[in-house]
Amino acid sequence: MKFQHKSLKNTFQFNNWVLGSLVVLITLSFTSCESFLSQTSTNDVADEDMFNDAASLESARIGMYNSLQNQYYYGGFFPLMADAYSDNGATGGYDNLDLDELGYKEATPNNIYIENCWIAMYNTIYNCNQIITNIDNINDPLLSEELRNDIKGEALTVRALAHFDLLRMFGEHWDNTSTFGIPVVKEILSPETTIGRNTVAETYDAIINDLTTAESLLSNDDLRFDPPALKGPQFITKTACQALLARVHQYHFDYINADYYASLVILEGFASLSDAAAYAENYTTKFATEAIFELAFNGQDKSQFNALTFARPDALRSEVSFLAAEDLATFFSTRTDDVRAGLVDFENNDVSIEPDGRTQKYRGEVFQDNSAYVIRYAEMLLILGETGGFAGGPIMLNDLRAARGMANATPADEAEYIALLVDERRAELNFEGHRYFDLAHFGLVESVLGEEVMPCFPIPGREINASGGLLIQYPGY
């Protein structure tokens, strides 16, 4: 029976206790003729040198989070490319053919940014697999069984996240009958190993299995301390795992489970919805009230977001890689009460940037310490808006609209409601890495971006070549 929900409210506010930031950018080694399985990282350690005790496990755990922060993953490029390849985004730069391909929505298999994203995500999976494979062999009295399970749950969740992001980027995530999934890697493979695509159904099964196992292992408490304290949203918690389950089931069109997990996250009270006056704090304050999973950077270990989206107040178009497209200005021009419009600037820019503008979500020009906003509370309301459909969804969307300064919407039918849902997702999640994937999910790539635009990115050509043809390119590339 479908889980029934009403307009859900949190029962308490999450405190701002912070354990400290995990911030070391991974430097990947790229070569022109090897597959992604042969890539190495400066953070990778040989099996015989690691996982001897609790301290070495903690180092591996930090390395896993660091790999998520790579500049080609959540440290900048991955979420920004997803918006640049949609009606939200445009690109700047100067005579950068690979960047221009993204702005023109004409990606090729030889695009260096796509290649680097592919490698960065599989490097994250490699780091997770090292932990998952070796953690049960560690014999250390400082490593309790509860802590062992919690770290294993973190690694399973991060592995699922990376596989899911690969599926969103390179596979037909909207079609469970498709053969165009992505290579699922759940063990440590040798560099010589060649693997092909799994089906979409197999990919989803692997992701969901990892997450459901992780849910049973994870805690919201940081068990490294005595007594345990509440984990901050810079770590994978049980709540973050459940929020990711809600997102994965939503993409999978399993609305019963998506509804269940999104409702569970809201009722947990780990995070809460900010009101219109405090909305901008989600992007100016570390671990604000809406943060469920947020990757933090600092002035010593900087993110790439500011350099890629802002640079400086009077920056030229050639200095800013990812811009807000004029179409986004048109979209917000009809939403005069929407406070979210204030985080896209189409006025205070160098004339070379016009008619496009710049997102303000990643200012941080003083320290370049912008966070990566992986999962926020507002997304749970949007998921419930989709699972509730025309009959029940408007309650959730109107809760969100009210918190963003807008009046209730009253769609007349299912078609109007879907259009409203897609618009609310665009208003809320722009430049957080969702729009291109949303258009594919709702079957809108052709109608919004044009029939010549493909609904997913190409697998890098060098990976196709290195596989000896086992990896199949997406048709049309």
| SSE-based structural type | mainly alpha
Low-confidence stretches: 1-33
What is the CA-CA span between the terminal residues? 43 Å
- The CATH architecture classification is Alpha Horseshoe
Number of strands: 8
**What overall form do the CA principal axes indicate?**
globular
Report the β-strand fraction as a percent range. Answer: 5-15%
Assembly category:
single chain
Describe the structure.
It is a single chain. The protein is mainly alpha-helical and 477 residues long. The chain has a single domain, classed as Serine Threonine Protein Phosphatase 5, Tetratricopeptide repeat. The chain has helices at residues 54-68, 77-84, 97-103, 112-134, 145-170, 200-217, 238-251, 255-268, 281-284, 305-309, 326-333, 377-403, 414-429, 435-441, 445-449, 461-466, and strands at 89-91, 221-222, 229-230, 291-295, 322-324, 344-345, 358-359, 372-376. The strands form four sheets. The protein has a two-stranded antiparallel sheet with strand order 1-5. Strand 2 (221-222) and strand 3 (229-230) form a beta hairpin. Helix 5 (145-170) runs antiparallel to helix 6 and helix 8 (255-268) crosses helix 12. Mean pLDDT is 90; it is low at 1-33.
